[in-house]
Structure formats: structure tokens, C-alpha cells
# Entry
Amino acid sequence: MRRFKLHEPASVPEASQLLSQYGDGAKAFAGGTELLMLVKLGVLHPEHLINLKGVQGLKGIGYDKATGWLSIGALATHRDVELSPVVQEHLPVFSQMERDVANVRVRNMGTIAGNLCFADPYSDPGTLLTCLKAELVLQRGRQRRIVPIDSFFVDAYSTSREEDEILVEIKVPPLPARSAMAYETFKFYERPAANVAVMAAAGDGGGTGLTVAFGAAAPTPTRLEPIKVDGRGDPEGAAQEAVEKARKAIDDLDLLEDFHGSKEYKRNLLRGLLRRAVVSAVAGARSRK
Amino acid sequence: MTRIREESVAKVTGKAKYTSDLLLPGMAYGRVLGSPFAHARILSIDTREAKALPGVLAVLTAEDIKLLSGEVIRDQPLLAIEKVRHQGEPVAAVAAVDMATAEEALSLIQVEYQQLPAVTDLDAALAPDAPLVHETLPPESPPHLMGGSNIVFHSEYKRGDVEQGFANLDQVFEHWFTFPRVFHYPMETDCAVASVDEEGVTVWGTSQGPFSVQEEVARAFDLPVGKVRSLSSYIGAGFGGRSGHHHILAAFLAKKAGVPVKLVYTLADNMAAVRRHNMRARLKTGVKRDGTLVARQLELWYDIGAYSRRSPWIAEMAVARFIAGYRTPNVQVDAYCIFTNTPSCATYRSPGAESVGWARETQFNIIAEKLGLDPIEFRLQNLLNRGEEGPLVGTRPQDTDLPGDLQKLAKASEWKSRASSKRGRGVAVVCHAASAGPPSSAIVRLRTDGSLVVVCSGTEMGQGLHTAMRKIAAWEFGVPEESVYVTPVVDTAASPYDTGTGGSRGTTVTGLAVQMATRNLKEQLLQIASQQLNVPVSSFEIKEGKILAGEKVYTVAEMLQKYYTAVIVQPWAPGVVSQLSGVSRSAHPQGRGELIGQATIAPGFDNGRLDLKPSFWETGMGAAEVEVDRETGLVKIVKYTALGDPGKVFDDQTARGQIEGAAMQALGHTLGEEMRFDADGQLLNDTLMDYRPTMMQDVPDDFQAVLVENGDGPGAFGSRGMGQVHLSCIAPAVTSAIGQLTGVYMHELPITPCRMWEALQNKEGKK
# Structure
């Protein structure tokens, strides 16, 4: 590892000021699980590292009873989310997804905000949050803006965050009534090869609306156009229907060909994971009367 | 209660000292600059800027060291001379006051390369007009070498006439198998700390053979062996891959820098320094309708990487390990070692057998299925019986009970009971010629407090050697294990000679030396007891630390104290009768001193007990049950039953640990582990993100090891080595279990989910 200067700002404006001052030569980090690895591997040589761990007001996971929105502070680690009673109560699928992220050492250090900003395609949180239509709060100086997650991910390792902006908060809207979520990820190597998040909302007259997001198999997570299936019979039937309806969207994805396998294999994985996720989401939604 | 292994507490509490923990006053830090290209001519190297960087103490290139090494052919430079032959090949080395400065210095070294076409796989290397990895070989190279191509070595073995054998059979099977490139992946990368002064060279390092290091460093520095001191403490695993050049490089850097230098390889450095051979093999096997083996033929193309090192020996081991264990009248094997522009290879736990054993055992299962025979019955019919001579002429007759062992495995794995239709089952038997042999020496010291100190030169790298040595000494002497201590550091200046810890020789040969040294010590003590008590030696025995002489009982400590108290000479006034005569001069009322037992296991030991080749047949077996997720291609091993035949078990936990460790390590190359290079010879997966060794989630829930103790090995108390062979059993057992379940027998490892899925798709497509 080359020499670098470490900065430890106490506030968001101070941190964004440092980022603006040093431009390309500076990188912000919190857990360091992604950035420091690249620095150690010699992929990045930042002259200035800006440690956000001491920044006030970015910790904490909250739930707004009035609106039903969940709020995740930028310094919340994967482990914090996994073990948070608030998350477990209001969005158990989030905590379940986090339980499978990397390993416990990474989860203890790495933050979910850092994970999103790094925009590694082979990642789980982005897919789930894309399905949930999360909103990201970015701050420069004292100015904040809200970016819907769809327009946050631009490409692999690339986001719409400006260089001197700090992601300070992740906001997750409430689930509709009579809905359930399911998350499926396939991991053989350290990182996932493909993942699928599904939200099933039981509608009137037996129709079930599905919100589906795919990730890891393509450069960025993708949310599909809403899919309607018949939620009355065997969930396996609904799943087959969903797979058929998603077939074209899957075929159109710009899939990555890599160690995990060929594009054809990835398509197959997405179909399989979608089937599994729909079965459990549809069954879950149905049980919520 | 199970006693915790001696080594474990120190390791899990972080107290065990590894080479990388060592800090010397004034020590500098070394780094190596690797080639960015797989094949290139070095036009120039400019080190001026690096040398001028403040804090840089030494910069070395081939200008400074023109050293060539190799166990058969000296073809590998310490630092690249004129050409680089694989990505990451060391081109220069630096030492600086800290790591960051050393790293910065590397970036200031300007190397001008002229890129050459690279051959990065067997096909490219064997093509008629392939670029040559080595245009010429050193003139003193031994015969058997082939010039003018990338095929550097050919080993053949023939017995009977395979063509004749095949001619009269209607059951002849031919299959191709491909085995991947794999890295040893020790948890501790190669590391050495060296200091050079007028006394000579001292090197601490990760080494499985500190005496070999001593000899190599002496050769490199043109010094008498006695001027070089080599030390080795705990090692974060070895697996045969510790034969790198890091010790010598650290020593040259220390010499140039004028201060001690620590050289720790990065993971990428280490993956460029050493790997295991990949291979392609054609197997042709002829059997009678009843399953009797008649003729077996193997053609083996062994990719040895850019330098030959020990590869020709390993290719010969593969030949022997292919043939071993089964009665076959006609055998023919041709093995070729082929240069490619990839990192060179070293021994790797169970060398040779991991690939040819996988191919043979998988093919046997295919054959058994085709003939409608149970794969265990098929093997029972063909395995050598104890005492039977196998098809390797002139070797030791089979010394394990292969059919008996296999029946034990069948029972333990409940082979006869029908497995669920969702599961496939496969079995494998591997019996390999051990490379273990003399010499090993050991010293056992008895102190007057009853402590027994074992000094041997076996290295502890995770296998539990200290525990085994302690038990051997305790059992042989007749003292409780708690009073035996094993010196944790091997130091060539103080420890007795040993060829090294590898080839499953630690317990068998080093252990035998410890047993014999203990016996020698015991004889001395009994001689003393006999003199002290005026009783013949034959009337004593030692039990639980006590010398029993008829009615009388002395502790070992008392007897030695008695001896040394009696011989104390009053120094101040000969002739004056001292009132203190017989009283120790220390505050403790006992005599002080020690007895030293020693032994060397040399060729000829005990009428040639270890001389016949091999010194033993290392025997392992495994039965696997698998499930395959047809949607994702994920293979799950739900049950694995292994059988090891160490002859005698010293420590149950340690012995099982060896079997489990070897099997789980091999699950890596079975399911996911593979070094992948692109067409230019760039390693694509040099981190754990994309390189996939076995993970805890892969370990079968139902995993048991059966240990056979027939007391029929040549080592201490009838033991034989057992640390390697299990690495070769699980891949064929799993491959065959998948085949039995799905009808798809995979001919290429690793069986990644994607490969499995594609193979299943192909099968569906053909229907």
C-alpha cells in the first residue's frame, strides 16, 4: 500500500469540502471493505483518504410510524441492518438479505451506503433496494438532494453521485397492504452471480402484482415493468406465469459473462431464482389478509 | 474429555510465532517486481531512480545475481535473465526502510520489454510451430530431455503388452480427462527474514525443509553449509509449495542492504511463484466381462509451467501412482512434461495422484456401471491383497489390506443400503507409493526434573506434528505425555538433520527417529539404574514415569538426580572430606545434568525396513453421496465417508484432522478451484473474490473418517504416513456420484455450477 494522507472530518459539509478540494486524488470511505481492498491491490492510489466514520449524525436506523418509511443512516453497517429490531419488524427480507452478504467480518465493517456508492455489480443490497424503490439522500455542503435508486446506478462501479457529494441516508418506502417480499441470491464465489427481489401485492379479484428486480448478473440492478399473475392457485403456477412474462425482459438484459458463467447460464439462473422468489412471495402475500 | 492438540491453543490465541511476526533491530522490508508479461525479452532495466529514492537500501536484478536452480535441470533464474517466461516472474527486488518505500521503489524501476508470443495452455504449447518457452536448456542437463519443442521430459513404464491385452477383449474403454491449475493457497504466504554478517548467513523462513534451505543458501552464496543457519518455526501450512526462492532472495537483499531484511510475498507474488500441475490424460482400459482388469494404458500431458523444478520427478510419481494398487497384467504409461508460459509447479499434497487418480477412479466407476457391476465389487475383484506384488516391478509388496479396508468403508458408509433416488453415490480408492524415506535424526534430552525434551527437525504447519512426536516419545519411554516437550523451532545450528517434512514422512520417518532416540535414552537410563542399584538391566521396566525394580520404585527424575548427585566433585580442596559431599550446590537438593538419547534413521536402518521402495503404500478411500440442483448446477456433497490406513494412530483428533483437511482441500479443485489465465498468460483470478477454494459451506453435514490400525506400517509403533492421499479420493468419488445420479460423468474439473448445468443441458439436448 502506498502512502496517503488520512482526513477525519467531523461533519458532512467538512467531508464534502475535502472531496471537492482534492478532487480525483481523494476517496471517501467508511467501513473500507471495498476501497481499502482496491488500494491494497494497487488498483487505486488515492493520495487522500477521507474517513467518514467520525462524521456526526449518519448513524442509526429509524422508522417513521406516521409514514411507514424506514431510514438507514450512511454509517449503518450490514451487520447493523441485519440485526436491527426495527428492520426485522418492518422489513424482514432486508435483514434476511443482509445475513447472506459476504461474511461476518465484512458485515461488521462494511456499510450499506458504501456498498451502494461502490456500485459493484456483484452485490445484493442494490437489487433489493431497487425492488423497494428506495430513495437516496445525497449531500454537498448543506445542500441535500434525493435521488431515486433507479437513477443512482449508472453502470458497473459508476453512480450519479457527484464527486463531492456524500450519501447520507437511504430511505425505504413502506410496502403496500397485503404484500410480501422474497429475495433469492445465488452465490458460489465470494460474490453473487445473480439475484432476484420480488414484491408480491395481492390485488382484488385474485390478481397479484409483482415488482421484480434483477441484479448481479448485469452491470446494474434492473427493475422490470410490473407483472400481473393469477395469485389464486398453486404459487408454483404463478411463478411459471411470472417466468414466462419476464422471459423477454431477461433476454434483453445486458448480462455479464464472467467466472460465474455464460450469459445463457445467467439467464437460466435469473429464471430459476425468479421462480423461487415468486413462489415464496405469492404464498406470503396470500397469507396476509 | 478430548485433549486439545498441543499446537492449537497457541494458534487460536495468536501466540504462535510465525516468520512474519519476527522483528529484528534495524530490519528492512523487501519487495519483488514481477513481470507484467507472460513471455518477453528484457531489453533493459533502469534502476537508477529506485536506488535514488530516500530509504531504499538495495535494488537487485540479474546483473547482481545470476543464479539458476532446478532439481533436475537448472533452468530457473532467481531473477529473470534476458527473458521472462511467465507473468509475475521476479525481475528485480528491492529492500527499503519500510514497505511503502519498497513499493514506491518498485514503481520507479523502468523495464523495457519486447513482448514475445506466449504459449499458455497445452494446446498452444504442443502446436507444431509453437513458440519455445526455452530455446535452449543448460548444457549439463541430464539425458531423457527432448529438444526442439516444449516437451521437456518423457517418462514411460511398460509391463506386459497392452496392445495384446486390448486385442482379445470386447470391453475396452477410452476416456479423456482434464485437470485444472490450482494454487496451494497456504494461509501464510511465503516469507523469509535474513541477516548476513561475517559469521555467515542466517535465514528464518516458511520452509518444510530447513536443511534444504541451508544447503541452497550455501550454494547460492558459495559458503560451506556450516556458515549458513536456517530456522523454521510455525508455518501457516505448506502442502508442498514451500520450495520457492524467497529465502535466497531475502538473503541477497540483506547482504546488499547491510541490514536484516524481511521479505513477505503478496498473494499475487505467491501465485506467480508456485502452483500445481494441470494435465490432460487419455486412459484406455480393457476388462473382461466379469470386471477383471487386463490392460491399462495412460498417456499423460503434464503442464509444468515455465520452469522444470521438480516436475520430472513428480511426473514419475504420477506414473507410479496411476499403476499402484490394482492387479493388472498389462500396463503402459507415457508421461510428458510440457513447458508453458505460466507459473512453474511444485509438489502439492499427494502429487500426481490428485489428477491421474481422479481420472482412473472415475473411469473405473464408469466401467463398473457399463458392466452392471457394483463399483465396490469391481474394485474388490482387482485390488491387490496384502503381500501381493503389484504391476510396478520391484516395489514393496502391498503392505495394507486394500480389500479389507474397502469392505470397512462399504460398511461405514452404509453402501449396501439403498440411497435415496435424489442422491448419487460414488467411491474411490487411491493407494500411493510414498516418497518418504531416510534420513532423519532426532535427539531426546532427559533433565533431572524428569522433563523429556524432543529436538527433531520436523516442521509444524498445521498437521499436528508436535502432538505426534510428544506421544511417540512418551509411549516409548513410559512417561506421561505431560512431561514431554517438543522444541517448536527447527534450527540447523542446533537441531539434528532431517530431509524435511513432506511426502507423508513426518510421523513415519522423523517419528521413527524420535522413537529410536527415546529408546537410546531409555537404555542409557536403565544402564545408570543398573549401576546405581547394582541390579541387572533386564530386571527393570519403566511405566508412567517410574522405574520399577522388583519391589522398589524410583521416578525417572529421582534416578537421574541420584546419578548426578553421586558424581558431583567438590572443587575447592581435593582430599578434604567435605561435610557437604553428596549435596548439590544449587538451592535445590538434587543433582543437575542431563542424558541425551539420539538416533539417525539412515538407509539400512533395522535391516532395511525403510529401504524397499516405496517405504510404504499410503492408502486412502472415500465414498460420497451428492445432490445436484438441476436449476443452478450446484453440487452439494451431503455425505462423505473416508477411510485412512495409518497402521497406528497417535492422536485421534489429529489423524481425523488430516483426512478431513485433505478431503476438504481437494473439494476445491473438485467443485470450484482453478487458476484461470487469459490467452496472453495473465492470471485473471488472483484474489479470493474469484478464486474459489473450499469454503465451510461446502463441508458435508455427514462427514466421517474411519481409521484402520493394523500396525503394519514401517514407522514408529507400526505407523505409516496418511497426510496426503485423501486429497486424491474425494474428486473421483464426487465425480462418480454425480455421474451415477445424472448420467453425466464430468471429464473436466472443477465441476462449477455453470459447467454442471451446461453438461446437463447438453445431455437433455441430445435426448
Chain A touches chain B at residues 1-3, 41, 186, 188-191, 193, 259-262, 265, 268-269, 272, 275 (CB under 8 Å). The mean pLDDT of chain A is 95. The longest helix of chain A spans residues 263-287. Chain A is about 35% helix and 25% strand.
